[in-house]
Amino acid sequence: MITTPKTKPLTPGRILLQNISWETYERLLNEMGDKRNIRLHYDRGLLEIMTPLFEHENPKELITALVGVLADALNIEIIRAGSTTLKNPDLARGSEPDSSFYIQNETAIKGKRKLDLKTDPPPDLVIEVDVTSSSIDREGIYAAMGVPEIWRCDRGEVKFLQLRSGNYVETEHSLAFPVLPVTEVAKFLEQSQTLGETTLLKAFRAWVKEQIQSENS
Prior knowledge:
The protein has helices at 22-32, 54-73, 106-109, 138-145, 182-191, 197-216; strands at residues 6-9, 14-18, 39-43, 46-50, 79-80, 86-88, 93-95, 99-102, 125-130, 149-154, 157-164, 167-171. With 217 residues, the protein is α+β, with helices and mostly antiparallel strands. It is globular.
């Protein structure tokens, strides 16, 4: 039993606890419940507790909205998994992504009320927004779980990462939505600084329809 966990000060909104057992991590999840404004990331004894800030939540919500527009315009069924706790005791890892989606595996998850990553597939797409430094290797957690794709926004810089041979490789186009280049997400995020969200999403939908028409012509 861990009696005296060590703490490490981080940037505002984060704290790192060391020497935390899996049992303690699961107990914290159970005691805190689902209705909370913090996220927990666990990696083999390290536990990071994060309080999301506005500068973090705003781009996360916008990117999540872009995924919804893509799925609707392309007529692709998705399941929004949000910040569902993804954990696997066999890996001694757990994480709560900023947002997540089942896309390719939508039919495998449809109708389920609970996820068990020992038998169920992980989300097909995870969104992570970083505005402060993290001491937890979240990419390593998602790679161990087999998450195929991450969209990472790090202080305004957007990257598409695809899992290949156990490691994430930066790519120009999305795996789940091949029509989408990473440059378009970065462009729309930049435009969000001056355009209203409704106007921005309308423009993005128009752009997606243009790509569909171009491919079909």
